[in-house]
Amino acid sequence: MFTQKEEIKWICPQCGSQNTKTVDSRVSVKEEPDCRKQILDTTFFQMTCPQCGQKEYYLGPLFYVDEEAKQMIAMGAVPAFEKEKENYLALGYAVRSVPGIVELCEKILIWQAGLDDRIVELVKAADTVLLKGQEFDEMLYAPDEDAVYIELIKDGASAGRLPFLDAVYDDMQERFGALLQNDYDDETIIDLKWAAEFFLEHYQTEK
Ligand SMILES: [Zn+2]
Q: What's the pTM?
């Protein structure tokens, strides 16, 4: 059994009462087929204070594994991550480390769409050129009902969005796909900063 539950104590910031909650510290899609849906709608993480009804979120660590797709994501400080990482890489898994719920959901959405998250980050980095100094904290891959967008987040709220262009994705894939396949298999933190550094290293020489 991969899935593991743990009892945690948490203090309600609203009323100060001490509560306990059973949370998943490890979850497997094979064992808990509904977990992905619950993660994406955040019910997976919700904790409700029995005293005052305040809703809080369990922020990790969480070790997420999808055996069928061979994907592993560590959210927060997963115990013994380095060792786990080596094991899963050796089994041919994509291994990622993310800071929080938003980033975990984003990885799952990208992979659900059959995309390579590294290419998606390169698309975002290319998009930043269009933004010319517009301020944001984060750019998120954001599928909507009719189309897919790159959403800009500033202070926890949306600050606008750009269309996610398949043509740009395909171009990046064509340009860098082979290189990523060969040289970047063991990188686990794949974010905008990673993409910016990748461009610095490769963009000029690849032209
Ligand atoms: Zn409370």
A: 0.93
